[in-house]
Amino acid sequence: MAGEVWKRFIAGDDQSFAILYHAYFSELFAYALKLGFDQETCKDAIQDLFFKIYASKSNLTHIRNIEFYLIRSLKNRLFDMHNNEYKIEEINYQDILVENEKNIVEQIIDEEKEIQLKHEISYLLQILPPRQRKMIHYRYEFNMNYSEIGEIMNLSADAVKKNLYRALKKMKDTSPPNSRHFTTYLFTILS
User: Is the dihedral of CA 176, 181, 186, 188 positive or negative?
Assistant: First the structure.
């Protein structure tokens, strides 16, 4: 549904814009609050985001996953607002020293492992139904608890928990046998 409404909006249908706004406002508002921003800042950021989308819709024809685009854009807008408000950039010298001490070979190995893990997760997420993928996204990308996810998706916290467990179990059972890192990662989540 959202994809069709998005296409109509890009084509110039202003009513579709209102439908998108109302369909995603609650989800975006809950996400912004979860990030730790106050209600007024959250509302302002959502308004700014939708204003920007409306003003630049001709440049957004390449967007295919509207939900991901909205959440990512809102997050960026919130942090821009935060940075503009405080204009203070903290430098953690301890982190810089630790990073400089890390061996280049270790960095390359870590990056390769991370790339491999991302590929495996991406592949395994595709075997899940869209609803379970969305739950995993909320749980592990946005660190939402079961109740928050349930509120957004109109489910009980127990139903969310069961669905997440089933999804992760399916991913674990489907993962290739030589995928030790991913299986270990999923085992820690399931435990």
Answer: positive
Q: 127: which 2 tokens?
A: 């075997």
Q: For 116-166, what is each residue's pLDDT tens digit?
A: 777 777 777 888 898 988 888 888 788 889 998 888 889 999 999 999 889
Mean pLDDT of 51-66: 83
- Vertex 63 angle, CA 130 and 35, to 5°: 65
CATH number for the domain spanning 52: value is 1.10.1740.10
- Decide: helix, strand or coil at residue 80: helix
Identify the CA nearest to 172 among candidates 163, 185, 191, 159. 185
Domain boundary among 86, 110, 129: 86
| Domain end (from 69, 86, 103) | 86
Higher pLDDT, 96 or 142: 142
98 with 170, same domain: the answer is yes
